[in-house]
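step: validate -> pass
step: tokenize input -> pass
step: predict -> running
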Amino acid sequence: MNQPLPIKPAELKRALSVAEAAARAAGKIMRDNLRIKKKINESSQHDIKLELDVRCQKKIEQMLRKAFPETPILGEEGITGDPTADHRWVVDPIDGTVNFTYEIPHACVSIALQSRMGKTGTEQDYKSVVGVVYDPFCDELWTAIRGGPAKLNGIRIQVSNRAKLSESIVALGFAKNKYTLEKMLPAFNDLIHRVRKIRMMGAAALSMVYVASGRMDAYLEFGLRLWDIAAGGLIIECAGGEFFHEAVEGEYAYRLVASNGKLRKKLEKLGK
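step: predict -> pass
step: emit ->
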């Protein structure tokens, strides 16, 4: 299945360059404000929304729209344009907001460019063609263009070769709703006795690119949103791993099993 409006390689490279610059600009805002008291716009038991989330998304939108004025933006903090267009940006301005609010320097910016590659009229038609994840606190920038290699700060990366759960580090997430906790607790109880270590990092996109980099071997979560996974999923695939996701109840919501490709069969039924 081909894109109805193919993007030329030169345009993909330009999109990557613009996304990198936008991620770094938002990352600077995050870095400059890590130790400053945050203004909370909204909070719940397991989630926080900051004024800085909105500020970072506006900065990203400004830079993306200047370079690609006709391309809509689907972001955690709102939508600009038609999200069902043939091409769209998908943005998470601060992934790991709770960490960031508590001054834990483990959060990132996630930006993906997606294209419609199918004709079913569903979200499954969209595939990420450009992906950028930026950790401003470690100054680590992960990038990928579909069909090319995944890179960390310009150096090619690859997923791990570990095939035994007993030797693997697996990341889990518990999202923010009661039903997602109920889905993931059995997975935690199952895996804790079978893997080398479980990690709960609190930033989905960073957990995904850590799998892409071979630092961790798999990542599971139920109830993630599209903006959490759009860039990281492409980066995992371009690093030789597997990015399995299926739609669940909720707008742009998914169950995710991301791995090095050697562990999927041992993990795919967990968190269902």
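step: describe -> The first strand starts at residue 40 and ends at 44.
step: cleanup -> pass
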